[in-house]
Write a structure and sequence with these properties.
12 helices, single chain, mainly alpha
Amino acid sequence: MNIFSVLHCEIRKIIRANVFWLVFLVFAFGPIMMGVGIILSSDTGSINWQMYLTDLLNNLAALGLIGYTFIAAWVFGREFTDKTIKDLLAKPVSRSNIVLSKLLVILAWSILLSIYMFATALAVGGILGVTGWSPLIWNIFLKFIITSLLFIIVTTPGACLANVSKGYLAPLELILVIVILSNVLASFGFAPYFPWTIPSVFQSIGFLNLSSIIILGLTGIAGIVGIFAWWRFSEQQ
């Protein structure tokens, strides 16, 4: 089977899973609750679309990190919890193609989730009467998508841990610790140097220094190399 056949099978598996739809349902509550809170806490008529979206998307950073990490961990970890890993490896398919197809699905699903959260935020603002629409809002959208991609890059260590631990609970426990640690390090000014806070830095100021880019890239590469290495060399139980 070539990579396209493997990718097609992977997409069908994901879409047919209840978790795929449940993720969108659960992560709608973040933009809804945050959006309502921002609007109700402001004076009537004093908030426009640019202010609303900037404030909302900055607050969505941690939620997005949890969502993307869950997706990455579940796509790999479900093979172990559902005990389908042996059937998957018994097929005449390259392990590299299996890993690559899963990584592509994770990327597509995560981007779709970020677009969905942004659309939900727009819907909440429209329903509650936010005014002052501006073409600059599309720049905010683009920055949010880039931030989401940066967060997706740092989910690769979590995906690697899902393979090593043979499940998706360990990565979720790890990301909760990382979220807490991120808040502590950010308060001490280390946000540009901690991989899981670097995307939030970009979301806030719109650019990254070279050291942040290198740290982010090395973290993502390390996770991907770890995943491929585990599938290549680790003995499957």
